[in-house]
Design goal:
By secondary structure, this protein is mainly alpha-helical. Helix content is about 65%, strand content about 5%. The protein has a two-stranded antiparallel sheet with strand order 1-2.
Length: about 120
């Protein structure tokens, strides 16, 4: 069987399949490489959120603003990131010190806060 393209190129079905298979494999490699580089920080943040923040912020336990509830986070975010990070590290109201993330850096706290506020 032969396939004729608009440019009048003719190839066998097996060569078309091989070409598509190679393109698909290369695309998969690029996607994986991209997720290891750029996506690894995002994945780490998602993992930290799941293990620490989600305990309270997924359901709004004890008045914690729910992740993704922009209205609930708006007044808090107006205080500025340094205050938000301080609250996460030292505890605030019903939030325990460290917010269940005992080894988070200031940058990781800030990233998690931004993620939950959006």
């Amino acid at each position: 069987m032969r396939v004729v393209y608009a440019e009048q190129k003719t190839q066998t079905v097996s060569s078309v399949f091989a070409h598509r298979l190679i393109k698909s494999a290369l695309l998969s490699v690029l996607v994986v490489a991209g997720s290891v580089g750029v996506g690894s920080a995002q994945a780490a943040g998602t993992d930290q959120y799941a293990h620490a923040c989600a305990t309270c912020h997924a359901a709004g336990v004890l008045g914690a603003p729910k992740a993704g509830d922009k209205a609930a986070w708006a007044s808090r975010m107006k205080q500025g990131m340094p205050v938000m990070v301080k609250h996460a590290k030292e505890g605030y109201k019903n939030m325990p010190a460290g917010g269940l993330c005992k080894n988070c850096t200031d940058e990781e706290y800030a990233s998690l806060i931004k993620m939950m506020a959006n």
